[in-house]
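Comment on the following before class.
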Amino acid sequence: MNEKMFGEKKHLYYTNGRLFINNVLGCASNCSYCYLDEIGLAKGKILKEINANDIIFMLEENSESLWYPISTIVSFGCYSDPWAKLSRKNTIDIIKYLDENNYKITLSTKQYINTSDLNELIEIKNKNNLVFLISMPITTDILSHEKGTSSLRLRIKSIENLVTAGFKSAIYVKPFIPGVTIQGLPIIKNIMIDYDVPVVLGKLFTTNGTGELAVVSESIKFYENECAEYLIMKESLREVGSVYEHSYEVFSVN
């Protein structure tokens, strides 16, 4: 095993049936609520980049010794945005490899997904095993809170492109930000209705030592907690569609 590439805060991070893949470490965007700097990575800049072939080599080296593809869910987007300009081509190549080996895959992004990029994936054999999570924890004042990301209009357009091309997608509302996230409730409900997509409604991240332990870091503990606004939003969204608390739950139905 290449310990420089494998482990927490590295390019491949496996824990409890989930495999997090990041061909870059750090994120060129700069979201006000991002946890990367708290766990020793960087927001607003890229620390390290490797190519798809290096990731694929590590997957081949460790598959069926540390994990089994059929029972492992791969997540892109733990320590970077996998659809950012620097990462996108490598991400597409890795997805093609994962598809050939029957992995289930989620990919979360705040960047625009255009039809030409989707055409690169149109021939994958297991479309139901790939779910794009379009991130919307904030729907107002994105320029202030999520610098370097695509606009809300383009994120909605991404969902339209995905649905039109026959790919699965979901609205990804994580983390929950009290006083902010709930402002997007009407918009998110309309998107769910217009495009018949579910929502992943994550809880708020805290470090107070209570709640469900988040998987993003083992050395620095984050906990997922509910609040009154979260429960209100969750019940309201359930009126119009499916609501999940964790991204891997999108595979509970086909």
